[in-house]
Amino acid sequence: MNCLNCNQELKEKQKFCSQCGQDTKVKRASVKSLLADFAATYFSFESTFFRTFKKLIIKPGFLSKAYLEGKRVKYLTPIRLYIFTSFVFFLIISVIPDNETNTEKSVFKVNPPEKTTEEIEEDTADIKLSLNDEDNIFLPNFFKKIDTVFDDSKSEENFFRYASSKFPILLFLFIPVLGMFFYFFFYRKKHFYIDHLIFAIHSQVFIFILLILSELLSLFIDINDISIILGIYFIYLLIASKKFYERNWFSTFLRLLGVFLFYITSIILLSLLFFFIIFQFYEV
Question: pTM, whole model, 2 decimals?
Fold first, then answer.
């Protein structure tokens, strides 16, 4: 007798396959079996889901430490947690309208600039005039594309919609950068880079949670101050870093301040670079 799933040879009284774990007595599919499978999967995920988010919020730094200690079934893995949270975040910002203008809004949504098309064209002309003919040899296509993209409001709106669709990639790229700063500022021989990267993933998940809450609260009250979110995020990271790296409060604060300053600077520089790259690849 062989397993119907993996074809592993089975013993006569063996109840489960030693290779894949499937029940050796496979019954005919029925509505009852489908519902049972759904219930088992749903409640298992729901239990893991709420357990993971509860620990993430009320016990900063715990999940990263638990994962590195080998507790990897009881909680959602860092990557699955990040993918799920980021999916919910981008789903929410795509459907929640602005209370005043009835248009989409978000802290991370790329919106067209407040300047008019005429003002943008004037600025572009000034940039061109500031460059000599030799410089213009290397950037002709770039300025042509600027003229085309900002030629009218519809082209401008299409470009910023395209830029918004690429932002999940940019946010994902921030994670290894944050992990690198944690590695340098909280360096210890017992910690490898991957340890800091896991901590960075959980940190990024928490900022997504804050942004999700901010978007939901914006339906009832006006929340436009990003400094509130950054302040809560810094306090959370301070507690999480103290727990994860096991240093004293003063040392943790100074090191985290360095991480925060370098990370914010990197976000600005990487965002500009990313914006320039997607502009270059944008097809008009």
Answer: 0.70
